[in-house]
Predict the 3D structure of the following.
Amino acid sequence: MTNNKNKQIEAALQVLASLDLPRAQQNERSALCLLALLNLTPDKPWIMVENPLMGITPIMDWAREYYKKDYAPNTRETVRRQTMHQFVNAGLVLYNPDKPDRPVNSPKAVYQIEPAALALLRTLDTPQWQDNLTAYLTGRETLVARYAKERIQNRIPVEIAPGKRITLSPGEHSELIRAIIEDFAPRFASGSTLVYAGDTGDKWSYFDSVLLAKLGVKIDSHGKMPDVVLHYTPKNWLLLVESVTSHGPVDGKRHVELSSLFAESTAGLVYITAFPNRAVMGRYLSEIAWETEVWVADAPSHLIHFNGERFLGPYNAH
């Protein structure tokens, strides 16, 4: 059985090399991921490869069960970032083909071998392999471009200024960020400029570091930014907005973190928590810090003020 395992892993490595995957992905980890996505146990021939939908944890569990390779739970991100991400970019694997608009950070995210790749790999041990491989590689650039275009089409467009747009990863978190920029800002901070917008797929999706530096704030890549930062130019305020769909309002701890992160700001600081609806807000009411604001996307014309002597504005440190 051990020989069968080694043989399958070697064959998978051959496939990755034949498909011209980067050297960094031509390793045992990537080989086992490929075998898992093909449900190719040690005793099965390549003609019997399958294409089940699998998430990262099921892939790791599969490798443990059939190839006795035990990956620690904290290697999930390594598998995702150092193998699956490249598989998707190469067109070898599809990401969430059952639900393309599934959020990037969803625990339900799944991967599946692309149909043309599946058909090719079924011929690995046959006389047709080399001709099929040549044909597949000839058309792969077009295939990759098509899937890349489809991924872009599933992103969420956000208008940050007249005629200027960015896109965010699909999901309710990004939908709320769009609402903050397109609905909250025009109502309560008309004339404001977007400084920063985060994304579950790309932390620094939009960042005007030059503008922030002019306001006295320099942030390194380790700074835990709020989801949206707006410069309310008419009043010279920085609006620090947390987008809450599943965790993280501006509570006492987060208030202190943001105060420290933006301590050098020459603009006044305003702390805001945004919720998609009042049902979600209700789960976090006891955690919201005083002297902050709350905005709810499904009631966009209202703002909830948590105590203090003014409706909306920065507070001087006591």
Notes: The chain has two domains: 2-153, 158-305. The chain is about 40% helix and 15% strand.
